[in-house]
Amino acid sequence: MDPHQSIHAMVTVMQATGQVFDQMGFYAVHNKTDVPFLTSDNPVIWFDPSVKDADLRPYVLRPNGPVLLLFPVSPSLIIYGDSSIRDEFVSEGVGIADISEVNFVEIFNRQICRFAYQAVFAQKAGQERLIQEHAELSPTIRFDRIGAGEDESVVFEMVFGKRERKPKWVD
Questions:
Q1: What is the pLDDT of residues 10-39, one digit of tens each?
Q2: 0.90 cut: is pTM over it?
Q3: Distance (Å, rounded) from C-alpha 35 to C-alpha 101?
């Protein structure tokens, strides 16, 4: 891995991230339940909410398709982004809402656990089973080589998979 090339790649990544954020409206959602929001070492996540859970791939969106973002700020506050509320956001700004239904908190926490890399943070005990259920997989990049020699291409896609040890920097 060449650190200089990684820095150049960050520009493309940030531009793509900005395009995703531009598709959404946002709410600050206060958790009024007894089940706290979890967070992780990968706290800002987005995905296509129209895809079945078993088929969901991290950070993979259909062109002009729906997108949902979760960013747990604390055990009682999450930034919720959703493409379906973009127009409301453009005209009224950031919304504020309360969640008092545990099932919504559990749905959010499940995705937070799925997108975690190596650590999930909880305010209190009680969600260990959920955390353990998703401990083996996290967002990774899968590379496939197509062709051979000069005609070889590398294709990659984001998947939930086992995390490999990162390669060392090349000087």
A1: 787 788 788 888 999 999 999 999 999 999
A2: no
A3: 10
- The residue behind tokens 């996290």 is 138
Cα–Cα distance, 150 to 91 (Å, whole number): 52
Burial-class residue 7 by CB neighbours within 10 Å (0-12, 13-18, 19+). exposed
Burial 116-126 (b: 16+ CB within 10 A, else e): beeebebeeee
Domain boundary assignment for the chain: 3-136
Measured between alpha carbons, how far is 27 from 71 in angstroms, rounded to an integer?
A: 11
